[in-house]
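Below sits our specimen:

——
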Amino acid sequence: MSRRTERVNELIREELSDLIMRELRDPRLEGGLISITHVEVSPDLFNARVMVSIMNETTDAEEALKALKAAAGYLHKELVHRLDMRRVPFLEFKLDTSISEGAAMLAHLEQVRREEGSA
């Protein structure tokens, strides 16, 4: 990955985080934490895969992901206005479960530690 691609990835991640937090008003996105964990832009800057972690207690993560996919056109349009780039990539949202998997692994390790401590 080139230095330019890395800069574009980080810039899109920062701007999308701000847009999702401040601009989107979808009830499927309320009541939880939505974190953009990674953005991967194609070499031609035509597409961007946006990995999101959704920690939401009120709605299902799949529903929140559907809301983000539905808002992809709006988010792309806002990025066009915010970024000084010739071509702003189209957004494809994917669910990143690594944070929740890591939390589950830590909970399991803590349980094993407690069981070994009591034995």
Summary: Residues 62 and 78 are 24 Å apart (CA to CA). The first strand starts at residue 32 and ends at 41.
